[in-house]
Amino acid sequence: MAFLSDTLARVKPSPTIMMTTKAQELKAQGRDVIGLSAGEPDFDTPDNIKAAAIAAIEAGKTKYTAPDGMPELKQAICAKFARDNGLTYKPSQVSVGTGGKQVLYNALMATLNPGDEVIVPAPYWVSYPDMVLLAGGTPVTVEAGIETGFRLTPEMLEAAITPKTKWLIFNSPSNPTGAGYSWDQLKALTDVLLRHPHVYILSDDMYEHLAYGDFKFCTPAQVEPALYDRTLTVNGVSKAYAMTGWRIGYAAGPENLIAAMRKIQSQSTSNPCTISQWASVEALNGTQDYIAPNNELFVRRRDLVVSMLNEIEGVTCPVPDGAFYVYPSIAGLIGKTSAAGTVIDSDATFATALLEEGNVAVVFGEAFGLSPYFRISYATSEAILEEACKRIQEFCKGLK
């Protein structure tokens, strides 16, 4: 009898964590490596949020809470959905977890049976397919490449739906591409879903507040109210509030689904960190004034990276609508050989050679289900980004 579960054979370790770890190992050896693989803002958590956490500690608010979040945070989440999205929820329709990842995982664990299919548009966040597999379902990847702006079209969605489809995972703005769906583009997708009442929507809105220029964020249940009872809307405080390490994610949706997720959480992790919950109450209820200035910095960083990458022959980098990633194509570099003799036969080979020869860590497109691309996180200073892009330019110039 094998000691380890057969389920482990269905999943793989996170490639983003793998590349970040490899970069850190090279740094520890004394190499001047620039890491652009981690998906977290370089901003510090705002002072009002930190003060709320300290106040909670000093007031002794350090005990267990309800398994899926305390009432004060659930009320703040309900207020946020009403304020930002025009969606009305009761606290009994809200679940709070240890990051958005746990909330997504709980939802899939609570609903998937063997044979159930989950549509996952590619490129996708690396964890979506593996969470589906861990929960016993079958991920159905639908490739949405550069020719559609990395957006799923209604025709693609219609073709992917079968009688076994249980969920569509939807993410806008997207990790890894930063592509967002306009109201009309999302309405075209929700019109398809209206024709298939057995399909539920898992909307990952984690990058909601990181939206730039003319792009206006919208979410499925907001665009099509008829899908309200079939939508789990997931969000969190990690990105917009620079609280990645505080580990708070949340979702709102059908009461029976939330109750099922609560049951799972009560027998696995129980409540998220109490101090982080109090900090999140302040994040959602307190001032939002720092979001716009932070976004202005992100736009400058985005434009710098896009401009410098598009100067490289063989590289095409679309302009993202939001988040803090770019996802350039390297189709024009495949088949070339690096200065050290590495044949660039895939985006994985490109990323490895770029790290080893150019001292820049990026994540290869295969990890996100669509090749040949790579992902850069531009959530770091302009000086670091400029130096990194110069190194990428130099590395690509050496390809023959």
Automatic annotation (TrEMBL):
<dbReference type="InterPro" id="IPR015421">
    <property type="entry name" value="PyrdxlP-dep_Trfase_major"/>
</dbReference>
<dbReference type="InterPro" id="IPR015424">
    <property type="entry name" value="PyrdxlP-dep_Trfase"/>
</dbReference>
<dbReference type="InterPro" id="IPR050596">
    <property type="entry name" value="AspAT/PAT-like"/>
</dbReference>
<comment type="similarity">
    <text>Belongs to the class-I pyridoxal-phosphate-dependent aminotransferase family.</text>
</comment>
<dbReference type="GO" id="GO:0004069">
    <property type="term" value="F:L-aspartate:2-oxoglutarate aminotransferase activity"/>
</dbReference>
<keyword id="KW-0032">Aminotransferase</keyword>
<dbReference type="Pfam" id="PF00155">
    <property type="entry name" value="Aminotran_1_2"/>
</dbReference>
<dbReference type="GO" id="GO:0006520">
    <property type="term" value="P:amino acid metabolic process"/>
</dbReference>
<dbReference type="InterPro" id="IPR015422">
    <property type="entry name" value="PyrdxlP-dep_Trfase_small"/>
</dbReference>
<dbReference type="GO" id="GO:0030170">
    <property type="term" value="F:pyridoxal phosphate binding"/>
</dbReference>
<dbReference type="InterPro" id="IPR004838">
    <property type="entry name" value="NHTrfase_class1_PyrdxlP-BS"/>
</dbReference>
<comment type="subunit">
    <text>Homodimer.</text>
</comment>
<feature type="domain" description="Aminotransferase class I/classII large">
    <location>
        <begin position="32"/>
        <end position="392"/>
    </location>
</feature>
<dbReference type="InterPro" id="IPR004839">
    <property type="entry name" value="Aminotransferase_I/II_large"/>
</dbReference>
<keyword id="KW-0808">Transferase</keyword>
<protein>
    <recommendedName>
        <fullName>Aminotransferase</fullName>
        <ecNumber>2.6.1.-</ecNumber>
    </recommendedName>
</protein>
<keyword id="KW-0663">Pyridoxal phosphate</keyword>
